[in-house]
Write a structure and sequence with these properties.
The structure holds two protein chains of two kinds.
Chain A (H helix, E strand, L loop, with lengths): L1 H16 L1 H21 L7 E7 L4 H12 L3 E7 L3 H9 L4 E5 L3 H7 L5 E5 L4 H22 L23 H32 L1 H7 L4 H29 L9 H25 L3 H19 L11 H7 L3 H15 L3 H30 L1
Parallel strand pairs in A: 1-2, 1-3
Antiparallel strand pairs in A: 3-4
Chain B lengths: L4 E12 L2 E12 L3 E6 L4 H9 L7 E6 L2 E2 L4 H7 E4 L11 H11 L4 H14 L15 H12 L6 E5 L7 H16 L3 E5 L3 H6 L2 E6 L2 E6 L1 H7 L5 H9 L2
Parallel strand pairs in B: 3-8, 3-9, 6-7, 7-8
Antiparallel strand pairs in B: 1-2, 1-4, 4-5, 9-10
Classes of the chains: A alpha/beta, B alpha/beta.
């Protein structure tokens, strides 16, 4: 035990004396959570739009007023002819053009049918989509006001209610993802680098020739990172609660235990990576390409898994981060207990056991 | 020099697939002896040494180190030997004292013993002024000497040195060998690999491996007579050319 404590003390010296690793450990989580929270967002605010109004009557004016009064849009300019649309898009500032047909008011009253064309700049498809949805919503609202005196029988009125994140704040979606990325990064990348570093320096050989057992060496190497990862998880949760007012509905204890499970699976992956790479650079590259990319792209963190092609959906199942994100989203946003996420937990647990088994086996082979 | 045998090796072999890195080597090393382990071409000697220190399993043969069998009792061997690898193997980002404390600790020395030992060691090496400086800031020669002293911290019966003087200036090499003599004089067996032929002359006995086999084993003096050579370098060249 005393040997073990000495070993861990040494690990902490390594971590605290290396500015680079200190930065990755503590700067990164804070920077990422703030970046994702403030800068990267799916919400739209004051999007510049242009109006091409062929009829210029009372109705179109009313609609334009409604749109420019909303906080989502600001009417940037009025154009006169169709050929201006392309020019204005090419300039890049205007994201959408509303094209009112000729005799808009007349058509509406006479034929009960008027056409408004919404042209959006879809170089950024997400924003384009959101813009068109928001314009539609404003139009629907306006039509309701027009029809408020008329009762239509057999009318289906969809009432949408967004639950768990009613304001559709993207930070709620990013916090679980960022937490997953950070835990993966700290646990897997940092351990794999720190183990390969000993291999590179030749100190691993000295440790293996010493009476320390290989298992003790490995546990001694990963233990500080378990500790630091837990601190990181706490920092992220505290930041998201206090800065982004994100509610944590479920049990913090369950959240903590699930995080520890995920940390251990990531550590096992880190050990696995260190057994197959000879240098710190290789370990870093494998961690980044082999772990970070799938975590970001395939875990459902940014891109919804249900809209991926089937092969990618299948692949996403073998990524531990996917299950962890489902679990912590459930706990943080929906406030569910273990009875709702036991399946995901079991899968994550199984993966953890598998990775530990594999890395222990690999590690032994390497010693032969 | 008495005749207590601390290393006994018989027909020790290591194969990597079809390649035989170490081919049935047989030799003995006596207590307090400085045993030079040379090899004409690369791999063999490091592999053989790894088997003796218990981090590589032999394919076949017998080996007994410090009274323990390498197949069945590698853990006991590890407690009784010291090891210094060809790469400088202390931690650059730890201070001199922290390195000593760490390595003393993993060999199970008590805190009190570590304190005594490190005080003596720092004084002997003249490192008082840099005891609390990071090892990375020391010149290579000092590091090597420190590294050797650290490998002797737990008073091992045998110390294995894998090319300990690589890249070190001649004066430091000289001082290093004085330290080796001193350790041997105090009863520690020294098992050393080197590719400096002048260093081979300093050994009590020398074995030379060619293509995984031991082709010559004797005192430097007798080897020179046997191969009618003026110095160890010539002996070595004659063997290497076949």
């Amino acid at each position: 035990m005393k040997r073990f404590i000495g070993f861990i003390k040494k690990e902490f010296y390594h971590i605290f004396r290396d500015r680079r690793s200190l930065f990755i450990l503590f700067g990164m989580p804070i920077a990422q959570i703030l970046l994702f929270g403030f800068a990267i967002t799916n919400e739209i605010n004051n999007v510049d739009i242009a109006i091409l109004d062929h009829s210029k009557d009372a109705t179109t004016e009313e609609i334009i007023n409604k749109i420019s009064a909303s906080k989502y849009f600001s009417v940037n300019q009025f154009i006169e002819k169709e050929s201006d649309i392309e020019t204005i898009f090419k300039k890049g500032k205007v994201k959408a053009v509303l094209n009112f047909e000729k005799d808009f008011s007349k058509n509406l009253i006479k034929d009960h049918n008027a056409t408004l064309q919404i042209i959006t700049d879809a170089t950024d498809p997400n924003t384009a989509n959101t813009i068109s949805n928001f314009v539609n919503a404003i139009l629907t609202q306006y039509q309701k006001e027009l029809n408020k005196d008329i009762t239509i029988e057999y009318q289906i009125v969809p009432r949408t209610r967004m639950v768990y994140n009613p304001e559709l704040k993207s930070v709620y979606m990013f916090v679980p993802g960022v937490m997953t990325i950070i835990l993966m990064l700290v646990s897997a990348m940092m351990t794999s680098i720190s183990i390969t570093r000993e291999k590179e320096l030749g100190t691993m050989e000295i440790l293996l020739v010493s009476p320390l057992k290989p298992l003790q060496v490995i546990i001694g190497k990963v233990f500080p990172y378990i500790f630091l990862s837990i601190i990181n998880a706490l920092v992220i949760i505290v930041l998201s609660i206090f800065i982004f007012k994100m509610p944590v509905q479920g049990s913090l204890v369950l959240l903590g235990l699930e995080s520890i499970l995920f940390i251990i699976s990531a550590l096992a992956l880190g050990i696995l990576i260190s057994t197959i790479s000879a240098t710190q650079q290789t370990a870093m590259m494998i961690s980044l390409m082999g772990l970070m990319l799938p975590v970001i792209l395939l875990s459902g963190f940014i891109f919804p898994i249900s809209s991926m092609p089937i092969p990618l959906q299948v692949i996403s199942n073998i990524i531990p981060a996917k299950w962890f994100i489902i679990i912590i989203k459930g706990i943080m946003l929906k406030g569910v207990g273990l009875q709702y996420v036991w399946k995901e937990t079991l899968i994550l647990f199984g993966m953890t056991v598998f990775f530990i088994g594999l890395s222990v086996k690999k590690y032994k082979i390497r010693l032969e | 020099m008495n005749n207590e045998r601390v290393i006994q090796v018989e027909g020790l072999t290591k194969m990597f697939g079809d390649f035989t890195a170490v081919n049935a080597i047989t030799f003995e090393v006596n207590k307090g002896e400085i045993f030079g382990f040379l090899s004409a071409n690369g791999a063999g000697k490091t592999t053989a040494m790894k088997m003796l220190v218990g981090i590589s399993n032999p394919t076949s043969g017998k080996a007994n180190v410090a009274g323990f069998d390498v197949f069945t009792n590698a853990e006991e061997i590890k407690k009784n030997i010291g090891y210094m690898s060809q790469k400088f193997a202390l931690y650059d980002d730890l201070t001199v004292k922290e390195n000593i404390t760490f390595f003393g600790g993993i060999y199970g020395l008590s805190r009190k013993r570590i304190k005594e030992k490190s005080a003596i060691l720092i004084q002997e090496l003249g490192l008082e002024k840099v005891a609390n400086k990071l090892v990375g800031a020391l010149p290579l020669g000092w590091k090597q000497k420190l590294s050797f002293s650290v490998s002797l911290l737990h008073d091992p019966k045998i110390v294995f040195l894998d090319e300990p003087t690589g890249g070190v200036d001649p004066i430091t090499r000289r001082q290093f060998w004085e330290m080796i003599y001193k350790a041997a004089h105090q009863g520690t067996t020294v098992f050393v690999t080197t590719h400096y032929m002048d260093e081979a002359e300093y050994c009590d006995r020398v074995s030379i491996m060619v293509n995984g086999k031991i082709e010559a084993l004797d005192t430097p003096k007798k080897l020179k007579e046997q191969f009618k050579a003026d110095n160890m370098n010539d002996v070595f060249l004659k063997l290497a050319r076949g």
